[in-house]
Amino acid sequence: MALEVKICGLSEPATLEAAIAAGADLVGLVSFPKSPRHVAPEQAAALASIARGRARVGLLTVDASDDLLAELVAAAMPDVLQLHGSETPERVAALRRLFGREVWKAVPVGEADDLVAAEPYWAVADRVLFDAKPPAGAELPGGNGVAFDWRLLANLDPKRRFVLSGGLTPENVGEAVRVTHAPAVDVSSGVERAPGVKDPDLIVRFVREARSAGVPPREGPAS
Ligand SMILES: O=C(O)c1ccccc1NCC(=O)[C@H](O)[C@H](O)COP(=O)(O)O
């Protein structure tokens, strides 16, 4: 199974096209008004329609209500719902049933004990996305361009289908994949020239460096 690459926080058609042309497997749209990457439902719909059939679409929300999720799902028809708030395992399971889509749950990591928080999600989420804990006082629960110590993931059960994110860049993604054997990586800030402004050259470099890491990802069914 090949490494999957997701470029998150795309909010303009041109950079979405650049991500797809670079070979991204997934493109991510953020619905969170405090974010510089926030897109309204109609923008999400337009961006998703560009991507459809060319890359899978992820829709990122933070503790969104059923009504907002229903509006976003109807507009953008995403392949993946990425939950980046304090959604419980029960909420993850309920949303998976309600919307019949893949659900990824973000778990913030700062130290080894934080991996314990991921345990109940393996059974209910299609993927657990490990992201760095936001810095103190951060406005955003993710997308802060901060990395965590990847060695914390080195002994994960190889059957775990996780996504590595947080502070990845074209310069460090190869090392991150070598250390963690991640089956998938997700980036936002590391391919931007300013907050919320994606850089096509950085996107190309990121996808190339990720794919050339040459590390067999962990194998095994999603769990
Ligand atoms: O990107 C945002 O603005 C955002 C807002 C609220 C919650 C999560 C957000 N982003 C998450 C991501 O883009 C990625 O999943 C991940 O955190 C990597 O971000 P980065 O460290 O910027 O590469």
Automatic annotation (TrEMBL):
GO terms for molecular function: phosphoribosylanthranilate isomerase activity. It comes from the Bacteria. Pfam families: PRAI. CDD domains: PRAI. It catalyses: N-(5-phospho-beta-D-ribosyl)anthranilate = 1-(2-carboxyphenylamino)-1-deoxy-D-ribulose 5-phosphate. InterPro entries: Aldolase_TIM, PRAI_dom, RibuloseP-bd_barrel, TrpF_fam. Residues 5-208 form the N-(5'phosphoribosyl) anthranilate isomerase (PRAI) domain. Its EC number is 5.3.1.24. Keywords: Amino-acid biosynthesis, Aromatic amino acid biosynthesis, Isomerase, Tryptophan biosynthesis. GO terms for biological process: L-tryptophan biosynthetic process. SUPFAM superfamilies: Ribulose-phoshate binding barrel (SSF51366). Pathway: Amino-acid biosynthesis; L-tryptophan biosynthesis; L-tryptophan from chorismate: step 3/5. It is an enzyme of class 5 (isomerase). Belongs to the TrpF family. This is N-(5'-phosphoribosyl)anthranilate isomerase. It comes from Hansschlegelia plantiphila.
